Amino acid sequence: MHSVTLSSPPSLMGVFAHPDDESLLAGGVLARHAAHGARTAVVTTTWSANSHRAAELADALRALGAGEPRMLGYADARDPSSAPGRTRLCDAPLDEPVGLLVRHVREFRPDVVVTHDALGQLTGHPDHRRTHQITLLALEAAGLPHLYPDAGEPWQPRALYASTHPESGVGELGPLLTAVGKSLLCVPDAYVTTVVDVAPWADMKWRGILAHQSEVARERSLPGILARLPEATRREIIETEYFTRLTPGPVPGDPHQLTST
How many Cβ atoms sit within 10 Å of the Cβ of residue 185? Predict the structure, then answer.
């Protein structure tokens, strides 16, 4: 793994399963890109646009400078009330959410996309895993004019990164999650390609996390766990973000990267 400092950031789109994933997993990178004038956006695959969590998401994105919510509106695998009458994301025919995401990609035209890793982050939530699969398929399809021709002009992002957690980087977070009965799915350190120090934007990231008030109020949710920690411990946890680049490396001089070495 190597640590890097961001410079001249490209336009960035996050694709995450639930409201709060964007702040927890890539809030620092989103805030940093926005602070340096890059276009940023977030697509959330579950929860309806008229739910309380959608309102919290809007507040979080304002804190991170990431525009207005873009929600696919599927139901959370573990909460039918998240989108009454809608199919659970994990039950939807794969082609359907892929097509919806292609439309957002072609509309926003990001240089870089960030999503969940194949494990579904530390807890392996099925919506995280399905969002990972949808994003991989949608990014390839978005650049091909014969796929989803009604979803806008083709656009091919230059890089895809998966937010992840290496075994050596779990630190204080591991015991906190296992103490409330959650799983701990980490990747080998060698799987991580990019380590980003987001300490200068940790306050913005924390405001994004706190905006998800309903999750902060829950004892077993990660926002709730973080809110009960001493500030120094919390900052140590949130000031570093880990990613794996899932697309080939850039050609010399290619500025379209999440980070620059």
Answer: 17
Q: CA torsion, points 114, 120, 122, 126, in degrees to nearest 10? A: 140
pLDDT tens-digit readout, 189-240: 999 999 999 999 999 999 999 999 999 999 999 999 999 999 999 999 999 9
CA distance 232 to 230: 6
The C-alpha atoms of residue 147 and residue 52 are separated, in whole angstroms, by 34
**Where would I find the H helices in 150-230?**
173-179, 202-210, 213-216, 222-227
Q: Distance of CA 251 to CAs 6, 69, 95, 247, 256, Å?
A: 18, 33, 31, 12, 10
The 3-state DSSP class for residue 41 equals strand
CB 205 within 8 A of CB 198: yes
